[in-house]
Specification:
The protein has about 350 residues and is α+β, with helices and mostly antiparallel strands. The protein has one domain: Transferase(Phosphotransferase) domain 1 (Transferase(Phosphotransferase), domain 1). It has 13 helices and nine strands. The strands form three sheets. Strands 1-2-3-5-4 form a five-stranded antiparallel beta sheet, covered by helices on one side. Strands 6-9 form a two-stranded antiparallel ribbon. A two-stranded antiparallel ribbon has the order 7-8. Helix 7 runs antiparallel to helix 11. One of its GO terms (molecular function) is ATP binding. One of its GO terms (cellular component) is nucleus. Keywords: ATP-binding, Kinase, Nucleotide-binding, Serine/threonine-protein kinase, Transferase. InterPro entries: Kinase-like_dom_sf (IPR011009), Prot_kinase_dom (IPR000719), Ser/Thr_kinase_AS (IPR008271).
């Protein structure tokens, strides 16, 4: 490290990463800027590219030739690190509702290093766009989709991995209308080993360790305990050996909270609150209802109140949301309890394609 100024710049960049700088991979909901490019930002570009033909070498793990894949290319060391980490983790995972990477390349030879991640292209796009276009999906399809994402999260948690950025925008709809969880750059697992392919300078090591210790996620989905850590100025959760297990449990509980926000938004069509803060009126209503054991939140949230009065929200759904959004980390249900909750068995088994087509 050349100076304290450089160190401060590294930490500033790390703190900015938590404000959702890495865009998800859109489907056909994002109009290509030039017929091929889907998204651009100062540090990244997302575009479509054809997979190998019979006369060209196929990409690793390519499921289909002569079809499009999504390529995300980033620059700057921090973003390259996150994309590299995402690929290394994704290629080791095997779950039907977690996206499988096709290939990855990291070019350090250029003056400004770049990295590219290749993923399958799903034209139906993000779950967020479906929820937005339909003003909510109601309970039947949301229940089927919750089963899929909860199954993926259960798989991750059993492997001691916390995703740290679960949200509608990070869930894609595949060709069979099933879901794929994406964007693993922010995820945390205690066993993750930093890339030791090259001798790294102190600045690089500080950058990578700071990213791993930093609070990651998207504001509207962050649990109250993570917001409190951020607001207190303590961006890092202690990385000492005796605290790693504690950190992992905090982050797993944060995944459950984010999944609760996701479920509510899927069913109702709008978020339960802007942030899990006492300054947010809807969140205060949730706290008050929990304290008094009453339906206060469901009477105060404008859209949920209307749906509740029309009989569109079941008791099973409301109970599950309240348990997943419990403000007390120690009382919030774990993923196993989510998977076994009565709401997930409320509707007859149907294929997602069948239910999706009815929308």
């Amino acid at each position: 490290m050349n100076s304290s100024t450089e160190y401060e710049e590294v930490l500033k960049l790390v703190s900015e990463l938590s404000i959702d700088k890495l865009h998800s991979f859109p489907g056909n909901d994002a109009a290509p800027l030039d017929g091929k490019t889907l998204y651009t930002s100062p540090n990244s570009v997302v575009y479509l590219e054809g997979l190998a033909t019979d006369n060209e070498p196929a990409l690793n793990n390519s499921p289909r030739k002569n079809e499009l894949c999504v390529v995300k290319t980033v620059k700057e060391e921090a973003f390259c690190y996150l994309l590299s980490k995402e690929y290394k983790i994704l290629k080791e995972l095997n779950h039907p509702h977690i996206i499988k990477p096709i290939d990855f390349c990291h070019d350090r030879a250029l003056k400004e290093q770049t990295a590219s991640l290749y993923l399958p292209y799903y034209p139906k796009g993000e779950l967020f766009q479906l929820v937005k276009s339909k003003n909510g999906l109601g309970e039947p399809l949301s229940c089927l989709y919750l089963k899929q994402i909860a199954s993926a999260i259960e798989y991750l948690h059993e492997m001691n991995i916390a995703h740290r950025d679960i949200k509608l925008e990070n869930i894609l709809i595949d060709d069979s209308s099933n879901l794929k969880l994406i964007d693993f750059g922010f995820c945390y697992l205690s066993q993750y080993q930093f890339d030791e392919e090259q001798n790294k300078d102190i600045q690089t090591k500080v950058l990578e360790s700071s990213i791993e210790a930093n609070i990651m996620g998207t504001a509207g989905y962050l649990s109250p305990e993570l917001i409190e850590l951020t607001n207190s100025g303590v961006l890092a959760i202690c990385e000492s050996t005796d605290k790693i297990a504690e950190k992992l449990e905090i982050l797993k509980a944060g995944d459950i909270f984010a999944l609760g926000v996701t479920l509510f938004t899927m069913v109702v069509g709008v978020a339960p609150f802007a942030t899990a803060s006492k300054n947010d009126a809807n969140y205060r209503a949730l706290l008050l209802g929990k304290k008094r054991r009453c339906d206060w939140f469901w009477k105060k949230h404008i859209v949920a109140k209307s749906m509740n009065e029309k009989g569109l929200l079941s008791e099973e759904f409301k109970n599950l949301v309240e348990e997943m959004l419990d403000p007390n980390l120690s009382d919030r249900m774990g993923i196993t309890s989510v998977v076994n909750h009565p709401f997930l068995n409320k509707f007859a088994q149907s294929s997602c394609d069948e239910v999706y087509s009815s929308y």
